[in-house]
Write a structure and sequence with these properties.
The protein is mostly helical and 214 residues long. Helix content is 79%, strand content 0%.
């Protein structure tokens, strides 16, 4: 009987946390972190302030928990480039970026939240900074994984540095597209072709350079 009660209490607590985090996601996306008050969280989640303080401690605790959940959801949603290892390097990259943009089109608020928090007043708070860094490092590593077979298959230092530069550019592309999506409603997928053309051109150029130098 006690065990069943504890299981039920745990489920209620989990549902309460999720309700608050869902409310926080909506409020931060539309108003930013500064525009989200505890009273707004209560009104939107249907929970009293005591529940929010119990689960999260304060408003910054809500933000930290939302970032952690967003990281987990992005990790599950974002495709791993290794899923397409059966393809040639260029096709592997094109298939990966297409799948990645399709995934982001399903949940565009993820990157909007991340961008809003990254430039917000609490961006230098240790909890926020470390979680944002984890998310961005994960994205960067995905770009490196997607681009390495094209530009650094043999692992040369100059080639790896080039891949790293392109990965920074790729991550900046998705950052910018989150703004475009927010303001203009344009999908991530609608911007794939120009970037793929750029990568294809660079791959062909470096391929020709290797041939001419041999």
């Amino acid at each position: 009987m006690v065990k069943g009660y504890r299981s039920e209490s745990s489920a209620v607590g989990s549902n309460s946390r999720d309700a608050v985090l869902d409310a926080a996601r909506t409020l931060i996306t539309s108003r930013g972190y500064d525009g989200m008050a505890i009273s707004d969280l209560c009104a939107r989640s249907g929970l009293p302030p005591s529940s929010i303080y119990y689960h999260f401690g304060n408003k910054l605790g809500v933000l930290a928990a939302l970032l952690e959940r967003t990281f987990d959801e992005l990790h599950a949603l974002f495709p791993n480039p290794s899923s397409f290892d059966d393809r040639e390097p260029l096709e592997r990259f094109e298939t990966w970026i297409t799948a990645a943009c399709n995934a982001l089109d399903q949940r565009p608020e993820y990157l909007r939240i991340l961008l809003a928090i990254s430039v917000g007043p609490h961006k230098d708070t240790e909890t926020v900074r470390s979680t944002v860094r984890r998310i961005r490092d994960y994205a960067h590593a995905s770009w490196v994984d997607a681009l390495t077979p094209l530009f650094a298959p043999n692992g040369g230092e100059a080639d790896k540095a080039f891949v790293d530069e392109l990965a920074v550019l790729g991550r900046a592309l998705t950052d910018g597209l989150s703004v475009t999506n927010s303001f203009d409603g344009m999908s991530y997928s609608s911007h794939i072709t120009p970037f793929v053309s750029l990568i294809r051109g660079l791959a062909e150029q470096r391929g020709r350079g290797g041939e001419s130098g041999s």
